[in-house]
Design brief:
By secondary structure, this protein is an alpha+beta fold. It has five helices and four strands. Keywords: Membrane, Transmembrane, Transmembrane helix.
């Protein structure tokens, strides 16, 4: 027997096998009702979730946890974690109430740049400050959160009247302009 006859016999068997499979599927499909189809597709769907979606989700979660651990190790290993540094309260008490120097010192704690500062006197001893800070979003947010608690208690009350935020899309830096008033 040569290879050609073996090949032809195999093709005949393949055709017979295909005919048998098509006959079986036709007989099963002709006996199925709508409920059988709904039940079968539901079982196949549940089986697919159980065997494919849940393991893939678990693997993605493990990859994310591994990446977080790697980044934490990287931050600790290369000393990228900076502890919060605040000015000693003695230095803050020596500054005049919410002056240019005080705002500059508070901004330096968060690595912000004081771009613009204006101070105007208003009625009944109130002083208005217009400040523009430039820095990263998180540092700016922390600065605004820490502005009120960092100011010593003997300062006059501070009220923030206006806040305007602009983002530079090229450098991803944020300019925060706010007007606040100190006084009675």
């Amino acid at each position: 027997m040569n290879w050609l006859t073996i090949r032809l016999n195999r093709i005949k068997l393949d055709r017979k096998m295909l005919q048998y499979i098509s006959w079986q599927t036709n007989s099963v499909l002709s006996r199925m009702t709508l409920w059988h189809i709904i039940l079968t597709t539901s079982l196949i769907w549940i089986l697919g979730i159980w065997l494919w979606v849940i393991p893939q989700y678990h693997l993605e979660q493990m990859d994310i946890e591994h990446e977080i651990n790697r980044l934490e190790h990287f931050k600790v290993h290369y000393d990228l974690v900076k502890p919060k540094t605040f000015l000693p309260s003695s230095q803050l008490n020596n500054l005049p109430p919410l002056s240019y120097e005080a705002l500059l010192a508070l901004a330096a704690q968060r690595n912000l740049h004081l771009v613009e500062y204006q101070q105007t006197n208003h009625d009944q001893g109130a002083i208005r400050h217009r400040c523009v800070f430039r820095g990263e979003w998180l540092a700016t947010r922390e600065f605004l959160d820490d502005l009120q608690p960092t100011i010593p208690h003997d300062f006059r009350p501070v009220r923030i009247y206006e806040i305007a935020i602009q983002r530079n899309s090229q450098t991803n830096m944020i300019d925060v302009t706010f007007v606040m008033e100190t006084g009675t």
